[in-house]
Design a protein that fits this description.
The complex is a heterodimer of chains A (about 550) and B (about 140). Chain A is an alpha/beta fold and about 550 residues long. Chain A is built from 22 helices and twelve strands. Chain A has two domains: about 50 residues, no CATH class; about 375 residues, TIM Barrel. The longest helix of chain A is centred in the first third of the chain and has 25 residues. Chain B is globular, with a radius of gyration of 14 Å. Classes of the chains: A alpha/beta (about 550), B alpha/beta (about 140).
Amino acid sequence: MFNQESLKKLEQEKTRWESTTVDKVIKKTPERHEKFYTGSNLEVDRLYTPLDVQELDYMKDLGFPGEYPYTRGIQPTMYRGRFWTMRQYAGFGTAEESNERYKYLLSQGQTGLSVAFDLPTQIGYDSDHPLAQGEVGKVGVAIDSLKDMEILFDGIPLDQVSTSMTINAPASVLLAMYIAVAEKQGVSADKLSGTIQNDILKEYVARGTYIFPPEPSMRLITNIFEFCSKHVPKWNTISISGYHIREAGATAVQEVAFTLANGIAYVEAAIKAGLDVDEFAPRLSFFFNAHNDLLEEVAKFRAARRLWARIMKERFKAKNPKSMMLRFHTQTGGSTLTAQQPDNNIVRVTIQALAAVLGGTQSLHTNSRDEALALPTEESVRIALRTQQIIAYESGVTETIDPLAGSYYVEHLTNLIEQKAMEYIQKIDELGGAPKAIEKGYIQQEIQDSAYRYQQEIESGRRIVVGVNKFQIEEEPPKNLLKVNPEVEKIQKKKLETLRATRDNIAVQNALEELSKKAATDENLMPSIINCVKAYATLGEICDTLRRVFGEYKATVTF
Amino acid sequence: MQETKTIRVLIAKPGLDGHDRGAKVIARALRDAGMEVIYTGLRQTPEQIVEAAIQEDVDVIGLSILSGAHNVLFPRVIELLREKGADDILVVGGGVIPHDDIPYLKECGIAEIFTPGTPISQIVEFIKNKLSAGGKKQ
């Protein structure tokens, strides 16, 4: 980008500036620290100049938006054409209560739904399972059967909204329910758009809602890829998630590295299952986190996009440009929110959301100010949504594409993050790929080390968290937190009882037996799961059937 | 050399939530503070936690929960400890726990609740003070 002569001159001038202008000031007022670091512990220099990006080749490394390697964005016009999808993750209590919240959010200008399921649902237990005690309807909505799903989407036209469902181990079952509800609404599967998270590898690494061992889990995932490529073509079949990896303590660099390493594992599994890369890769999507280090976060998104494009093209020989585009949803960083002075969280979320937008996200969830205390209230969710709307309509950052490109610092950091992430991916390749690296505990250990270092930095005061280790005040405990109706568990149990008494139990048994047989073969399980769901077999019954064939995963514990 | 008994701690994750960053960071910090720490891993029932605590002869149980099931699961742990005659074990809790729930949990017998942002040094100090003031008899 720059000619050698001008770089040489610049270098001389920079040296001069440091030894004269800067030195004088430093002698009088020393800098705040001897060295400065990003959140990922990358050292930050005092000043960035063309010298730091002299290797950058505009066409090769940046190119144009909507073109390989997509560093500047995946769409040719980005937010000038249309804003990102404003998608607040929501769900609690019963299907009825969540349905009401969705209708409220849609009436407030939200443009997509995002369903939070409770933990028993996420782990494939019915609400009356002993392990579900105390958990029913707490962190999300309780879904036991197609009946609940019908209520959840009652009055919401599924051909007009796109729905994201945060579901992993039993993703195939919830997708089957969604398809069945749509059918009852008269909407055919090929009109459905949305996403299932369906990312089991990060469950073993960071989030813990796994059911089956890795091999059958990967099979369920590739079954979904194959089924959707034929019958639900607009559906994002997986959302390869760095979000939880980051929340577990990973740095921005590790988030990119471990997420893309998992992505590589899914692509390899699908190819091994006989699918053509360009058949399923266009429907892969990603899910990232946004923390407070604004410029590092922007660089992270740009680096991830470029790195994935290169991996798909060079490593997997994808030919369809859509296979190379890293499309991603972003959620602001839950773990960065503080229980102290919760209104400060609105400011944190704003910075993080801005990073996501400057980084070119396709969809965004902004966390609510009270999430370090409880599930968000309607009022705090509205503020969170308004934060997105203000960035979209008032901040001006959406009027031009990738506005931070060409910043010496941002480009340097983008290069550095890509390079460091690539080093991790090579290390994981040497260990035999992500599933093997997870089995060996390598990825978990790296994340835990970062989490511990972060905590120590806070303890020592090296890292400041406003309101926590600096600028504290005496506080009144916050009022008006959301309380989940304690009756939910009883209501769900009652519903299950009625369901089991009124459905055609022979049809249920037959459908479950058929699934059990198919599970023992190599056949695609989606059609059998859809049959079970339509017969009103419960989520627990379907998952138990698969548990009997596949077994359950037991994690090795380290800290 | 003065002989002091090393404090033994069981860090436990009751319920179904898989968010154990906090649990693991605390476990490691308590270990660095000279305690012996056992971590149960995810998805433990109150029964499993109490059994492990008794078997491992711990002085302290640290319960970590983020799913909102604390009002059901924490008191159950205390109840089981009483049933087994092991209620000399100090029980503390942490996680995303609304302020309004804390008085109830303390009434049930949880010695302290540490919410997000608590410095680890404060947790270490609390445990040491409590034990020397007659938590588990040494």
